[in-house]
Amino acid sequence: MSARARGRLARRRAVNAIMLAVLATAAVVTVLPLLFILVHLVAKGASSLNPAFFTHMPEPVGEAGGGMANAIAGTLIVIGLALACGLPVGVGAGLYLAEHRGMWLANGVRFLSDVLNGLPSIVMGIFAWQFLVRPVGHFSALSGGVALGAMMIPMIARTTEEMVRTVPPSLREAALALGYAHWRTGVTIVLRTASAGIVTGVLVALARVAGETAPLLFTAFGNQFWSTSVTQPIAALPLQIFNYAISPYDDWHRLAWAGALVLIALILVISLIARVATRARFDTGSGD
User: Fold this and answer.
1) Burial class of residue 32 in the structure, from the number of CB atoms within 10 Å of its CB (0-12 exposed, 13-18 middle, 19+ buried)
2) At CA 229, angle to CA 242 and CA 58, rounded to 5?
3) CA distance 147 to 150
4) Please, what sign has the CA dihedral across residues 207, 211, 215, 218?
5) How many CA atoms lie within 13 A of 137 on its CB side?
6) Are 189 and 172 within 8 A, CB to CB?
7) Where are the beta strands (DSSP E) in 149-235?
């Protein structure tokens, strides 16, 4: 190797090392705030976590102790309703966008999905109050679940579209050649192949709405008592955390920190379960 070639190779290695260092620094700077938030949550909220926090109701003002059992149950109910509303609509819309790209309707739906992805949550709350709460005359868990589900739809639809586009056309053509109908090919072959990526997108959407407070203020409203009825106001962790955090009582502040920690842990557990459930597809290379 000539001296000129060796010099060029040395410069390329030096530039590569510098860029790797810059990228590694950017990655660390990105993660540091998240680690700081997590450590701060654990430091503030772990001391208030005990069996009573998960099994007891909130105590009246001025009394120490109590828990957030009603808020934890309410959060699970509202999230379940949001998934029931947003998942089928979002996946169906995403599959349509991927299979009919170029059509005027698909282009319009894609544009609206991109716009709605950036819609402030409080605006969604006002719309939900106008069309779901005001006609029936009272707040309810169902209206809260529908509001959160509507927020999930654009994100799930766009994620599904992108994941379906990664499926090799040969799979689709093979299914059609075997006599599968177009709709059956999309549901049983394409969606199944892209399911790991779609699940990830659904979890991201779920994590986004699980901590939303503004839509629930206009729909679920909150409830200091135990309630699992979907037609009545219901407690939720974001609402309870908000109310306790702005209160003047130190004991409620500690419960708010503990509630925030539980909310983060809930999202983490759901993510881990989904990752384990889809691990087989990652291992076999049939997923994303």
Assistant:
1) exposed
2) 40
3) 5
4) positive
5) 0
6) yes
7) none
pLDDT per residue over 145-173, tens digit each?
A: 999 999 999 999 999 999 888 888 888 88
Task: Print the SS3 string covering 17-33.
Answer: HHHHHHHHHHHHHHHHH
Are 220 and 233 within 8 A, CB to CB?
yes
Distances (CA, A) of 228 to 156, 203, 220: 27, 24, 12
The closest alpha carbon to 278, from 265, 267, 268, 287, belongs to 287
Residues 208-244: tens digit of each pLDDT: 888 888 899 999 988 888 888 999 999 999 999 998 8
Q: CA 275, CA 281: separation in Å to the nearest integer?
A: 10
**C-alpha pair distances (Å), 146 with each of 3, 62, 72:** 69, 35, 18
* 3 state DSSP class of 66: strand
Q: Are 209 and 151 in contact (CB under 8 A)?
A: yes
Ramachandran angles phi, psi of 66, nearest 5°: 85, 180
